[in-house]
Write a structure and sequence with these properties.
The protein is mainly alpha-helical and 338 residues long. The protein folds into two domains: 10-60, no CATH class; 144-337, Hypothetical protein af1432 (Orthogonal Bundle), CATH 1.10.3210.10. Helices cover 61% and strands 0% of the residues. The chain contains 20 helices and no strands. Helix 10 crosses helix 19 (315-325). It is globular and about 50 Å long.
Length: 338
Amino acid sequence: MPEPVVRTSAFTERHLKSALHLVDTEEVNRHPFFMEITGLLMCDIDFDSNAHQVARDIVGGIDHMATLPEVTLRIIDIIEDPSSSARDLHRVVSSDPALSSRILKVVNSSFYGMPRQIGSINRSISLLGLNAVKNLAIAASLGRIFRFDRSLSHFRVRDLWDHSMSTAAASCLVARCNGSKSTDEAFLAGLLHDIGFFVELQHDSASFTSMMESVVVDRNGTPDVDLLELELETFKTDHQAIGAVLCEQWKFPRSLVSATAHHHDPSVLTGDESLVPWFVHVGDHLVAHRPGGFRLDLIENSIHEHALEALGIIDADFQGILDQIDGVCGDMGFSIAA
């Protein structure tokens, strides 16, 4: 009988090496403990219970993240209630002037390409659809929850926010290219994929700042170290785990939790659960290729070798997506964050 092999995700490998002082994947595979549990080890963010618990403690320790703003929760409830109507949504959105303003700015941004100026919330809801309005409300809520005024030598929090908005747009476009009906879900998943970084900053700004300042980048913005490794050293967890816990706490769908937890390597997932994470993975990397794109957590900015097969798209599709992204993302991000 051939010797069993434990296949680990990159996230799991880092924790195994840290716990057992191992050097490479082969050492992990040969370790007696893991040989015994072959077939039981699942490449899931929850496998390392300590890292998951640390993430839960970090999220739980920030009171203002316990829940989304009341108006956003009401909007989500309306969308999920089959007996609700566009009129119900209009009533709630209109009760929040700041949110109404942001939605109007976005619907009139180049991302949606409306032929004429839209001046009413009712018309915006009709044109965008209920789920799109919900996503914009969540995006606006994030702009309120997280501050964007921190700036380091090669990192500005605002750049990370712009990257999140760009990835949201790119993930949506990848979903369209795939022919998926989950474009709204892909947008929200892209928006949330790096939210763990924002949580780390609010949890311990000094440690976060020190960690980011220790990353050296070349002229192309390529980091010299694996930021996920630095996160483990600094926080004993990483932004994927923290983001997944926050999505769970906010009661978002499982697909969003999975996309947040596994956007660096969706290949550890199977079936329908992997689709939205693949949208985000590709969107994240495409956006990072753009001039000034955030890529401190991408030491190798190459799309996973299984992405094309998983999504049923070809290399040529990427350029088309990039062409659509250019010129719309910054406009949209400013509209929501302003």
